């Protein structure tokens, strides 16, 4: 940790930094300014102890405070080498650097920064239980029942080989919800899917709290952590791009 150095900024979007290489020289003799775009470490939408006892403060301090921070710092170090990606929103940076399945060096850190931000926002204190209103209706429409969806999501998590992520996504062309799993840093954004919720299945996401008991971790996520409020808001935004017909998803 800490091997990558970046300018510590608090926002998760691009910020402009301009730096003259020789500020004391007359203007006519100055070298061209370097323009660099940095990303910052975004804070989870709750205090680090707010998910206890289901996800400990110690896990958040390590997972968000160390692993996630390292991805941000390494991404900024990558971007510092060139202004090629200046001005890219994070989702577009991910799609571009995925390079049609031949990822560029910047892809892993960019995708992991976005994936982690999305994961923190997929949880909430007092989460779990069942979704309500249109989200539940859409799940029942596409999976047959909430129970079927829950079983499919848990099965995907427990059969994921190695490190990766499990997602509930909205498929644009099919206009339906699906559960998918991705390896390593891959995000559904690269296939133009619209993520609704995600679960981090890298070992560092659960080991401090659950050791090797992945099944307990996944079930606790579904029972006590997943934010169906976030899912409802994301589905409402998704309807601006995908006509789902009935049921209509209300804005949270």
From TrEMBL:
A Pfam short name: Sod_Fe_N
Primary location class: plastid
Domain Manganese/iron superoxide dismutase N-terminal: 39-123
GO cellular component: chloroplast nucleoid
Coiled-coil ranges from the UniProt annotation: none
Alphabetical keyword list: Chloroplast, Metal-binding, Oxidoreductase, Plastid
EC identifiers of the protein: 1.15.1.1
Compartments reported by the entry: Plastid, Chloroplast
Catalytic reaction list: 2 superoxide + 2 H(+) = H2O2 + O2
GO molecular function: metal ion binding; superoxide dismutase activity
Family: Belongs to the iron/manganese superoxide dismutase family.
Function recorded in the entry: Destroys radicals which are normally produced within the cells and which are toxic to biological systems.
Official protein name in the record: Superoxide dismutase
Species annotation: Xanthoceras sorbifolium
Gene name in the database record: FSD2
């Amino acid at each position: 940790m800490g091997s990558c150095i970046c300018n510590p900024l608090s926002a998760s979007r691009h910020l402009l930094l301009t730096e003259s290489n020789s500020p004391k020289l007359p203007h006519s003799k100055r070298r061209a300014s370097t323009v660099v775009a940095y990303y910052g470490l975004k804070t989870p939408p709750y205090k680090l102890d707010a998910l206890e006892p289901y996800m400990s403060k110690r896990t958040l301090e390590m997972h968000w405070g160390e692993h996630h921070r390292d991805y941000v710092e390494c991404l900024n170090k990558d971007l510092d080498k060139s202004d090629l990606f200046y001005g890219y929103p994070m989702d577009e940076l991910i799609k571009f650097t995925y390079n049609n399945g031949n990822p560029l060096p910047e892809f892993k850190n960019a995708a992991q920064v976005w994936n982690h931000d999305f994961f923190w926002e997929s949880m909430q204190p007092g989460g779990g239980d069942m979704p309500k209103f249109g989200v539940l209706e859409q799940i029942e429409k596409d999976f047959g029942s909430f129970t079927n969806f829950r079983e499919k999501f848990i099965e995907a998590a427990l059969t994921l080989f190695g490190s990766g992520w499990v997602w509930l996504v909205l498929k644009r062309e099919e206009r339906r919800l699906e559960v998918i799993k991705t390896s390593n840093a891959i995000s559904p954004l690269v296939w133009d899917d619209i993520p609704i919720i995600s679960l981090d299945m890298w070992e560092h996401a659960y080991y401090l709290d659950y050791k090797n008991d992945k099944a307990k971790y996944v079930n606790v996520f579904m029972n006590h952590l997943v934010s169906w409020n976030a899912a409802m808001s994301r589905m409402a935004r998704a309807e601006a791009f995908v006509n789902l017909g009935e049921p209509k998803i209300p804005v949270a």
